[in-house]
């Protein structure tokens, strides 16, 4: 999504865990163009939530549990659609009708990917050493 222009965060230290780092974080990212992002993590959420949502003017991508990706593509941009709708169209949508008329949906299921992220990072690191390929996330990016 790119680098945010500003970051606002609420951090708790020792809120639920006696540890020396934050154990409860809610961060809001301001990208400067009207777009915002939100990141939430907690060490005391033992069940956890693994979800990423990206909402744009032409649709939405939702990744659940690092394995199921739902892609909803609007048939026209939200701005165009909004400009052409009247209140009865809006009511119909909010009551659950007509959704199939405004977007298509694609679902990709990658099965169980538990641990795969670490394998991919190690393979990327190894390729950089052995073959000289650029790193997916070089250490110099850490400053950002």
Characteristics:
about 140 residues; 3-stranded antiparallel sheet; alpha+beta; 4-stranded antiparallel sheet; 2 domains; 4 helices
Provide a short characterization of the protein structure:
The chain has 144 residues and is α+β, with helices and mostly antiparallel strands. It is extended and about 55 Å long.
State mean pLDDT (0 to 100 scale): 89
What Rg, in angstroms, do the CA atoms define? Answer: 20 Å
Instruction: Give the strand line-up of the largest sheet.
Output: 4-5-6-7
End-to-end gap: 13 Å
- Profile the largest sheet: 4 strands, antiparallel
Question: What is the count of structural domains?
Answer: 2
Give the tally of β-strands: 7
Secondary-structure content class? alpha+beta
Strand content: 25-35%
- Secondary-structure element series: EEEEEEHHHEH
Number of helices: 4
Morphology call: extended
Kindly state the percentage of residues in helix: 10-25%
Unreliable runs, pLDDT <50, ≥5 residues?
none
């Amino acid at each position: 999504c790119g680098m945010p222009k500003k970051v606002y965060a609420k951090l708790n230290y020792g809120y639920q865990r006696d540890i020396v780092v934050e154990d409860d974080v809610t961060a809001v990212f301001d990208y400067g163009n009207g777009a915002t992002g939100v990141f939430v993590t907690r060490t005391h959420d033992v069940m956890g939530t693994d979800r990423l949502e990206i909402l744009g003017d032409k649709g939405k991508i939702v990744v659940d549990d690092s394995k199921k990706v739902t892609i909803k593509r609007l048939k026209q941009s939200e701005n165009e659609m909004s400009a052409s709708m009247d209140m009865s169209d809006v009511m119909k949508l909010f009551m659950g009708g007509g959704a199939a008329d405004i977007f298509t949906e694609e679902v990709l299921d990658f099965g169980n990917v538990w641990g795969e992220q670490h394998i991919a990072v190690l393979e990327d690191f190894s390729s950089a050493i052995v073959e000289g390929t650029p790193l997916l996330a070089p250490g110099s990016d850490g400053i950002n």
